[in-house]
Amino acid sequence: MNVEATDLPHDARATREKLDYAIEVRREAVLSMLSRERYALAASLLGLAVMAVSVAALPVRGLLGWFLALRLLAFVMTRWAASRLEKRIRARAEIGSAQLTLFLAMCATGASVALMLWPAPPGSPTAATATIQVVILVVVTLIAVTMAAFPGPRDGMLVSFWLVSSAVVALHPGRIDQVFLLVSLLFTIGVRVYASNTGQQIIRAAQTTVENKQLTEELAESLARSEFLSTRDPLTGLYNRRRLFDEGHARHLSSQVHLLMIDLDHFKSINDGFGHAAGDQVLVAAAQAVRRVLEPLAIRREQPVFRLGGEEFLVLLEGLDLAEAERVAEDVRLAIAAVGPSLGRYAGIPVTASIGLACWRPGENLGDALQRADLACYEAKDRGRNRVRCAA
What is the C-alpha to C-alpha distance for residues 293 and 162, in angstroms, rounded to an integer? Predict the structure, then answer.
C-alpha cells in the first residue's frame, strides 16, 4: 500500500524523508561511479593491450595465455554487469540481482588480475614480466578507485586479488619470494584506504548534488504555488476575484456570457453552530458540486468558476442562451443541495444555495453585470432561499 508522506505522523515523515535522502545520495553516488567506470574504459583496454603484448613477447606463453583470456572474459563480464546496473538504477528498478552480478564480476576481475602474477617460463624477457607486474598494480589501483563509491564490489575485488595472489605465491615457493605475501597485503590495504577516501569524496559530492536538486525543486514548487495563489482561492482551488477582473472583460468580448451569482444559504449559522472546519468542508464540497455540473460544458469551452469571498461563488457561462443558462443554474442549485451526505461527520448539515442569473449585456461593464446578478441572488433569498432568480 502506498502512503503519501503528508499522511504520516511527523516523526515517521521525518524518518522517511531521511531515508529518501539517503537513497537518493546513494543512487547519485553509484551513477557517478558508473560514469567514471565508463570513462576508465579506455585505460582498462590499454592495460589489457599492454598485457597481451607482454604475454606475446614470452617464448612460451603457457598458462599466462589462458589467464589473459580469463582476464579479458572478466573485463567483458564486469562491463556488462556495470551497464546493466546503471540501466536499472536510472529506471529506478530493483537492483538486487544486478548488484550481486556486479559483485561477482568484480571478484572474478580481482582473481583474473592476480592470476597474471603467475611466474613466466624460464628465459622470459625481464622487460615483459616486469611490465605485466606493473600493469597489474596499476589496474588494481584504477579499478578500486573507479569503484570507490561501491564498497561491496570494490572490496570483493581487492579481497579476491589478495587471496589469489597469495595462492600463486604459495604454489611457487622457490620462484617467488615469500615476502611478496606481506607486500601484497600492504599494497591491498593501501589501495583500499585510498579508494575508501575517494569514495567518501564521491558521496559528499553526491550529497551536494542531491541537496542542490532538492533546493531547485523546492524553489520551483514555491514559484508554482505563488503563481497558483495569485489567481486561485487556496481553499477551493477556484479562480479568485483578481482573476475575474483580469480576464472577465476579454471573455465577454469573445462570446455571449451569463453570470451565476451563487450564495450559500445560512452559511454563518454553519460556522457558528458547527465550527469553521465544517464551514470550510461545506465550501469545498459546494465548489466540487459546481465543477461537476460544468464538466460536460467544459468539453466545448471552459466555464470558469470563481470564489468571490466568504460563501459567494460566481460562474461565467459562455456560449449559452438564456434557457440553457437557466437549466445550468437549476442543475447547480440541485447539486449543491445534494452535497450533505458527502460531508462525513458533518453529514447532518443542510446545505442549499440561492442563485442569481444575469446576462452580461453588450457594452456593459463587469461591475454592472455583477450588481444585477447580485440583486437577483438577493431576490432569491428574499423569496425563501434555495432557488434561482433571473435578473430583469
Answer: 75
In the numeric block, the cell 545520495 is attached to 25
* Known active-site residue 326: no
Cell numbers of 369, please? 453585470
Side-chain half-sphere exposure of 350, counting CA atoms within 13 A:
6
Task: For residues 229 and 243, give the distance between their C-alpha atoms in angstroms, rounded to a whole number.
Answer: 10
Residues 80-87: contacts with CB under 8 Å, at least 24 apart: 80/105, 81/105, 82/34, 82/37, 82/38, 85/30, 85/34, 86/31, 86/34
Instruction: List the domain boundaries for the chain.
Output: 5-216, 241-390
CA nearest neighbour of 380 among 357, 359, 354? 354
Size of the chain in residues: 392
Q: How much is the CA Rg of the chain, to the nearest whole Å?
A: 37
Judge if pTM exceeds 0.70: no
Q: Are 370 and 339 in contact (CB under 8 A)?
A: no
* CATH 3.30.70.270 given to domain 241-390: yes
d(CA 253, CA 126) in angstroms, rounded, equals: 93
Q: Which of 28, 37, 86, 311 is catalytic?
A: 311
Q: Is 75 helix (H, G, I), strand (E, B) or coil?
A: helix
pLDDT in tens, the chain (392 residues): 344 444 545 566 677 777 777 778 888 887 877 777 777 778 888 888 998 898 888 887 778 889 999 999 999 998 899 888 888 888 888 888 888 999 999 999 999 999 998 888 887 888 888 898 899 989 899 888 888 888 889 999 999 999 999 998 888 877 766 777 788 889 899 999 988 888 888 888 888 888 888 777 777 676 666 666 678 888 998 998 888 877 666 655 566 889 999 999 999 999 988 899 899 999 999 999 999 999 998 777 788 999 998 899 999 998 889 999 999 999 999 999 999 888 888 888 899 999 999 998 887 888 889 999 999 999 999 999 999 999 86
